[in-house]
Design a protein that fits this description.
The protein is an alpha+beta fold and 291 residues long. Helices cover 28% and strands 22% of the residues. The protein has a single domain, classed as Creatine Amidinohydrolase (Alpha-Beta Complex), CATH 3.90.230. The protein is built from 5 helices and 15 strands. Bound molecules: zinc ion (ZN). It is an enzyme of class 3 (hydrolase).
Length: 291
Amino acid sequence: MLKKLGRNDVCWCGSGKKYKLCHEGFDGKLQKLKRKGYRIPNRNMIKTKKQIEGIRESAKINIAILDEVAKHIQAGMSTEEINRIVHETTITLGGIPAPLDYEGFPKSVCVSINEEVCHGIPDEERILADGDIVNVDVSTIYNGYFSDSSRMFCIGEVSQEKKKLVDITRESIQIGLDEVKPWQPIGNMGHAIHAYAMKNGYTVVRDIGGHGVGLEFHEDPCVSYVTKPDTGVILAPGMIFTIEPMINMGTDEVFVDDENGWTVYTDDGKPSAQWEVMVLVTEEGYEILAY
Ligand SMILES: [Zn+2]
């Protein structure tokens, strides 16, 4: 049981300021929402100013790594070459690739092609071909702070059908971001993304979602993109999470590779696309940390 903070006590957030001059109003807003029946975030989901600064630096490296991949990715290249670029760039910039050895993941990046939904494992034998759509998902640890974002790349001449899937998925991120507002429930974001995907004839993967990030690779909250409006945890300034819908051309059903235990595929073999943005909730709305 936490001792109730007095108004003149030092705030729980680590700012060193008096509670009444710091998070008292913040907590008051959340308590009011809680009384209305909303789920409110735990304090460990609210990053301090210092933590946000550290996470922002990590995110800058994540962006630089993806920029480096963007410069080199092309047909004829193996996915292992992408792994090398990510690994070497991360180390050069002073970071650590978060996926490497994470729960046994063997490489420094996830590279997922066409019907691979996510968690594709780089391989010397897997060669990018003209017409492929490829997700490169980069996660970095820098000074102990975690960042995570991913992009889609179209290799050579991609069919109109696949190009549209990639574009709509990217557009859905902005549709979701438009619903990232402080003191509003997170479900509005997932609902907006789902509605946009469905309007375009696509489905959204239900079994895997996004997550809080920053002090750990994967933190609360779990983030779904198939939610109902006005549901889910309340967004509060200082929360950091990923928006990373996996949007499928066909069924939303997926399965995990039973040999490598990681790679997720669409059940019907139709393509899947994913973009991932790492977002901070602010007093005004949101700030994109990594994309
Ligand atoms: Zn405070």
